[in-house]
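Morning F.,

Quick status update on the modeling queue. The single chain you submitted on Monday has been processed. Sequence for confirmation:
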Amino acid sequence: MSDAKRAGDTPVMVELEENKVYAWCACGKSNGQPWCNGAHSDGSMTPHVFKAEESKTAAICLCKQTSTPPYCDGSHAK
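Structure tokens below.
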């Protein structure tokens, strides 16, 4: 994810709904962080689309350096 624009220095906590499909912004350009709004259309990056396996509160990455997209792995602190 090193070509991505950093959208924040800490993760954002969000409520995920079981079986709902989400599109995490991988490029960092979306003004609706952490979700994709199509701002990547001028580049080669695409969103990370995933289906929530359970309803839960999750730490979603904003630095775009995580090795476990869309979830924060602490990369923002390195």
